[in-house]
Amino acid sequence: MAGFINRAQQTRDHNGQRNVCAADGHPGTPEDPLVKTADGWRVHLSDTTNPSSGFYGQQQGS
Hints:
The chain has helices at 7-17, 45-49, and strands spanning 34-36, 42-44. The chain is α+β, with helices and mostly antiparallel strands.
């Protein structure tokens, strides 16, 4: 999972929250894994594909 991670997300990662969505606080799952947003947060894939989400269309590399 290479790419940009912002400093706040790096802190979350180092505090054991690497697999915890920055948007809703729930863990990633095989059905809805975490992806990185354009500004470096880890959120559920569904957050980047749901037009109602503030992260819609924000997945890195998409």
